[in-house]
Amino acid sequence: MFVFTILGSSMLLVSVYMYEMFEVSTYQGSIGRPAIINQRPIIGILAEEYFENKNSQAPNGSHIVASYVKMVESSGARVVPIFIGKDLAYYKNIVNTVNGILLPGGGVDLWAEDGYGKAADIIYNLVLNANRNGTYFPLFGVCLGLEVLGVVSAEMSRTVLVDCKGVENIALPLNFSDDYRSSALFSGTPQHIIDSLKTNITSNHHSKCLTQASLYENNLTETWKVTSTSGVRGDLKFVSSMEHVEFPHIFGIQFHPEKVPFEWYNKNNDPHDFNAIVANRWFYDYFVDLARRNDNSFSNKQKEESSIIYNYPAIYTGGYFQQIYRFQYSDSASTNLISVVSQQ
Ligand SMILES: *[C@@H]1O[C@H](CO)[C@@H](O)[C@H](O)[C@H]1NC(C)=O
Ligand SMILES: *[C@@H]1O[C@H](CO)[C@@H](O)[C@H](O)[C@H]1NC(C)=O
Ligand SMILES: *[C@@H]1O[C@H](CO)[C@@H](O)[C@H](O)[C@H]1NC(C)=O
Ligand SMILES: *[C@@H]1O[C@H](CO)[C@@H](O)[C@H](O)[C@H]1NC(C)=O
Ligand SMILES: *[C@@H]1O[C@H](CO)[C@@H](O)[C@H](O)[C@H]1NC(C)=O
User: What Pfam families does the record tag this protein with (predicted)?
Assistant: First the structure.
């Protein structure tokens, strides 16, 4: 009898679990997410211009902020840096090699020659082409990364981004769009995470933003589905998350999940509590899970090993970004993934 009871209750548990799995996979199937085919995803993270200080006229090489790398790694992927100022062949090679690309946040002129904005423009169009060609390829923009998605999808329009004063260094809730549960981004999000995201739990550090109005003015409302807005004042509600209508695995968020567990600059007001850690994790976990549905790979193991960010040292700054990776331009214009050397 005892054995039967144990068996009975565990079978009940199994069937409840399977029911939940079934529910989730049915939902994901309904929004066209293909099956998982790759348990060793590699994410490319785009570097951006590095300025020695606020008065620097010209960038000195490029950098990647380490908190993005850590966040992607802790979702179960490895990271390859993507360098700026390269030719089309280099970015084509990247899009045919990695399983997803992250456009991180930062502060650069998106219209600068050979910079992050230019590279993001090339990458966005290559990713669109790949998806149109039947290759499922996710692209995720965070903060400046969301902003650049807006800009490049409007062919580098200067009117998509608007001033968004008052949301630098503030934790805010997401105000979900009415149909947010039918988006790819939020259709499978556990309810407890949704509940947390309705509290002051997202880390905002931006002075520009996209709004419903700026998307409308740039004819982008058919391109992007706004899944949430946030704001501090009644008159300014910015787009805090959005996904591409045709390919919803191209998506962006205006806030910074990676700062919650990984940035500690003492002048920042980022939430670091349990609910904030759990809820913010979800966006990168979701992104990496999309990348498991792409089976690109490096042409050989040696190329993969030499391209991974493990080859570069993270430098402790003690500043606004606690750790960064720095890259200098090399003499070579080759399309080799490691044609840029680290500074140390
Ligand atoms: C650029 O960075 C390198 C490596 O850190 C440094 O040696 C050099 O002095 C920097 N150049 C300028 C102009 O700051
Ligand atoms: C689309 O796929 C075909 C066949 O694999 C390939 O020849 C072509 O280059 C691809 N186009 C793009 C834009 O990726
Ligand atoms: C949230 O969005 C709704 C419409 O979806 C709007 O009526 C409401 O004012 C918004 N609230 C905030 C705080 O932005
Ligand atoms: C959330 O943050 C806003 C802006 O700082 C503040 O006005 C509001 O009172 C906060 N809400 C809660 C529940 O703490
Ligand atoms: C705006 O989008 C519509 C529908 O996609 C298109 O027909 C129209 O030409 C676009 N207008 C501009 C100015 O791009």
Answer: Peptidase_C26
Residue 26 resides in a domain: no
Tell me how many domains the chain contains. Answer: 1
Question: Is the Cβ atom of 169 under 6 angstroms away from ligand 4?
Answer: no
89-114 pLDDT, tens digit per residue, is: 999 999 999 999 999 999 999 999 99
CATH number of the domain enclosing 70: 3.40.50.880
Q: CB–CB of 335/299 below 8 Å?
A: no
Residue to substitute in 167, 170, 174, 175 for testing ligand 3 pocket (most ligand atoms within 8 angstroms of CB): 175
Domain that holds residue 148: 38-342
Please check whether residue 54 lies inside any domain of the structure. yes
pTM to 2 decimal places: 0.87
The pLDDT value recorded for residue 286 is 97
**Residue of 56, 69, 52, 62 lying closest to 115 (CA atoms):** 62
Helix (H) or strand (E) holding 318: none
The amino acid at residue 344 is Q
Quick check: is 79 in a domain?
yes
